[in-house]
Write a structure and sequence with these properties.
The protein has 226 residues and is of the alpha/beta class. The protein has a single domain, classed as Vaccinia Virus protein VP39 (Rossmann fold, 3-Layer(aba) Sandwich). Helices cover 43% and strands 19% of the residues. The chain is built from 9 helices and 7 strands. A 7-stranded mixed sheet has the order 3-2-1-4-5-7-6, sandwiched between helices. The longest helix has 19 residues. It is globular. It starts with 11 loop residues before the first helix and ends with a strand. Bound molecules: S-adenosylmethionine. S-adenosylmethionine (SAM) binds next to helix 5 and strand 2.
Length: 226
């Protein structure tokens, strides 16, 4: 990455470095939550149903820096102006996306976050990085907040709860332009839950060319044929 990119320019660089550092605390947060999570998963029969977003409201569960750089470079390569994200958390991924939109000459990143405290902190982090003018983080359930979208979407990041990857894609796909990129995180962490998603994206039946990248927790990287 060049020194001139917004990613490596202050204040964005310091905010990202600080948030990645704070996210390392997730290890301890997970250990503390583990017994409660395990019981709830056993009771409900699946991670998505047993572990609620509110249970994880202190956890970052972010994209890795490598994954974030891939998002940045992809958005730059395709000249993305309009990007949609499912699952904003404390705003690590939207910082990478908004930096790319800034370096592309402007546009809009539409994020969505269910947890009010996370939403408030995400807005504060975007402001600290001086990228808040490029991001609209919508508070609420993505299945409602992403109903209204601008005309053509260049890129979609799926990083919320895994049972909603397909429904959110159903919602956003009609807005995707030809050549749009869809990136879905946690393919290795939730291998079983996300198998139907991966199979559908790689089958070609849904209009995508797609592959799984061994970056972070596994990224499904899909390009829309239109
Ligand atoms: C894995 S984290 C996202 C991490 C973020 N992309 C980053 O890189 O920093 C997933 C987030 O999705 C949020 N979430 C889960 N279900 C949601 C829903 N139905 N609508 C909106 N957000 C949701 C959770 O509260 C959580 O903060």
């Amino acid at each position: 990455m060049t020194a001139q990119s917004t990613l490596n320019t202050e204040p964005t660089r310091s905010v990202l470095d600080r948030l990645h550092e704070e996210a390392k605390g997730d290890r301890l947060r997970f250990i503390t939550l583990a017994p409660r999570m395990l019981l709830s998963v056993l009771r409900h029969g699946s991670f998505a149903k047993g572990v609620t977003p509110s249970m994880m409201k202190e956890c970052f569960i972010p994209l890795t820096a490598e994954g974030g750089e891939l998002l940045y470079l992809t958005a730059r390569a395709i000249g993305a102006k309009t990007i949609v994200e499912f699952g904003t958390s404390f705003a690590i991924s939207p910082l990478y996306l908004a930096a790319a939109v800034r370096d592309n000459g402007g546009g809009l990143v539409i994020g969505t976050e269910l947890e009010p405290e996370k939403h408030a902190r995400a807005l504060a982090h975007l402001k600290q990085a001086r990228l808040d003018d490029l991001v609209d983080v919508r508070l609420g359930d993505a299945m409602q907040t992403l109903r209204e979208l601008p005309g053509a979407v260049d890129m979609l990041l799926l990083d919320g709860w895994k049972n909603l990857y397909m429904p959110v894609l159903d919602l956003v796909q009609p807005r995707l332009r030809k050549g749009a990129v869809v990136v879905a995180d946690n393919i290795f962490t939730f291998r079983k839950e996300l198998r139907p998603y991966v199979e559908q994206m790689q089958s070609g039946r849904r209009g995508f060319d797609s592959t799984t990248l061994s970056i972070g927790q596994g990224l499904e990287y899909s390009v829309y044929r239109g």
